[in-house]
Amino acid sequence: MSAARAPQDRSVESPASTLARRCAALMDADMRVAYVRHALREMAPEEMVALVAELLRRRTPAHADALLTVSLALGSAEVDAARTAAARRAAKDGLPDVVALLGSHEDATPELGELRVPDFGRGRPLTLGERKTLARRRDRQLLGRVLRDPHPDVIQVLLGNPALTEEDVVRLAATRPIDPRSLEAIYQRPRWAVRYRVRRALVQNPYCPLPVALRLVHHLTAPDARRLANAPDLRAPIREACARAAHAAPEH
After folding, report:
1. Mean per-residue pLDDT for 188-193?
2. How many domains does the chain have?
3. Measured between alpha carbons, how far is 178 from 175 in angstroms, rounded to an integer?
4. Is residue 232 part of a domain?
5. Other CB atoms closer than 10 Å to residue 4's CB: what's the count?
6. Measuring CA to CA, which residue among 222, 214, 220 is closest to residue 239?
7. What's this model's pTM, rounded to 2 decimal places?
8. Would residue 201 count as lying in a domain?
């Protein structure tokens, strides 16, 4: 009979490992993000900086999953005050990758121009309320048109539609031009943002809000990070973050 396995001593477990373990115990992505959001809100600046720095350094699958959950939770207004204070501390400590993840970052996405509302075949322009109602329908042919709606409020409703597929959201995340708020709405939905193809499409879209793209850069594979580090249509901070991330990212 093999010897009994000694219980794990959690008294010496780091905060990052504790967070990774607790996140792994929560199977639902929304629950994980809600838990981490609450934890981040209560952290002192130096605690958040240390947590993010360790998660960036530790590349085990569990730590990578926890870092993704942190990256999604940071998009909540509930943690803005704690995140901003931690970003200042990280800048003072000279930690550019932590600053990239925590910072607010001034943004300058490409000009949108006029975004046209698709023809819904009703013989007249539909009101915003009518378009939001259509976004709740499960008609696949209709959803194809709703996916082209330029208004972020319509997209926000659409992202909660049970009939929506990953392929739909990848196509939406890759749309150009698109209102940056529609891309942020995708990022705000853990159900979709945890999916690799969706995250990659967001990062490589020039219309993606800079803070969102920078929070997702570290969740790319090394080949994708290297490719995007040289993408001429991406803003310099994203290319620079991709170049740094390529050295630490997994190859597949």
Report:
1. 96
2. 2
3. 6
4. yes
5. 6
6. 214
7. 0.90
8. yes
By CB neighbour count within 10 A (0-12 exposed, 13-18 middle, 19+ buried), where does 141 fall? exposed
pLDDT tens digits, one per residue of 29-84: 999 999 999 999 999 999 999 999 999 998 799 999 999 999 999 999 999 999 99
Domain with 96, as residue range(s), is 13-102
* Conformation bin of residue 232: beta by default, left when phi > 0, alpha when psi is -120 to 50: alpha
**What is the distance between the alpha carbons of residues 18 and 11, in angstroms, rounded to a whole number?**
10
Query: Could you tell me which of 177, 176, 187 has the C-alpha nearest to residue 69?
Result: 187
Q: Return the amino acid letter for 102.
A: L
What is the H or E stretch that residue 202 is in?
Answer: helix 196-203
Tokens 């709405």 belong to residue? 185
| pLDDT score recorded for residue 12 | 77
Q: Is residue 157 a contact partner of residue 136, using CB atoms and an 8 Å limit?
A: yes
Same domain? For 71 and 136 the reply is: no
Give yes or no: residues 94 and 135 share one domain: no
Domain membership flag for residue 58? yes
Q: Assess whether 137 and 171 both reside in one domain.
A: yes
Contacts of 149 (CB under 8 A, 6+ apart): 117, 118, 131, 135, 155, 158
